[in-house]
Design brief:
It is a single chain. By secondary structure, the protein is α/β, with parallel strands linked by helices. It is built from 5 helices and 12 strands. It has a 6-stranded parallel beta sheet with strand order 10-9-8-7-11-12, with helices on both faces. β7, α2 and β8 form a beta-alpha-beta unit. The longest helix has 13 residues. The two termini are 19 Å apart. 37% of the residues are buried.
Amino acid sequence: MVAENPRARSLVLDVPDWAGHRAGQHLDVRLTAEDGYQAERSFSIASPPEEAAVTLTVDPIEDGEVSPYLTEVVVAGDELEVRGPIGGPFTWAVEDGGPLLLVGGGSGLVPLMAMLRHRAARASTLPARALISVRTPDDALYRDELGRIGPREGLDVRWTWTRTPPPGWDGWTGRVDAAMLAGLGPEVAAAARPHVFVCGPTGFVEHVANLLVDAGHDPMRVRTERFGPS
C-alpha cells in the first residue's frame, strides 16, 4: 500500500488470470461482513495497461462503507473480491491518437493518471494537456510523479487550487473557468478536436463539460465520468 497524500492510499493488487485493461476503466470491489452483509463500490484503475499488477487509488469518504476499510484496515496478503475491468467509452489508448485533454477534480484524477502513465510507458509524444483542480496541497494526488513526467515532450500538466495554494504559488487558483481551459493552448482547443476526458464530482464535471461545449468542443468528444460516496 502506498500513501498518495495524508488520506488516500494506492493498493497494488495481484489479480489472478488478469486479462488486461484500457486506461480509464475501473474495478468493482465487494466486501462481505461476517453476518453476510455486502457492500460493493467502484474504483478507478490508476495503473497503465503495461503493468501486470492492478493499482487502485482510494480516497476515503467519511462514513463510507468500503473506502475507509481499503485505506485503514486492509494489509498485504488480504484477499478482496473484485469484478472487472469495467467501462468502455471513458477509455483512451495511444492508438486512438491525440491531442489529449484531461480535466480532473480531486480524486477524479485517478483514471486520467492511468492515461498519462500509459502515454509515458509508450514513450508517446502525442500532445496532451491536463488541468487538475484540488482544494489544498494535502488533497493532491501523484504531484511528485506528475512533476517528473510533466516536462516531457508534448505534455503539459497544470494545477488550480480552490481553497489553499502551496506556499509561493503563482499559478492558477479557484474554480476551473473558461480562461484556464483557453490557457492550456491551441493544441487542445476546440479546433484541434482533442480527445477530452473529464472526471470528478458531479457538479465539477457538469460545470467543466458546459464550459468545454460553450468553447466549441464537440459534445460527442467530451467524455465524462462522475463519482460519489464510497
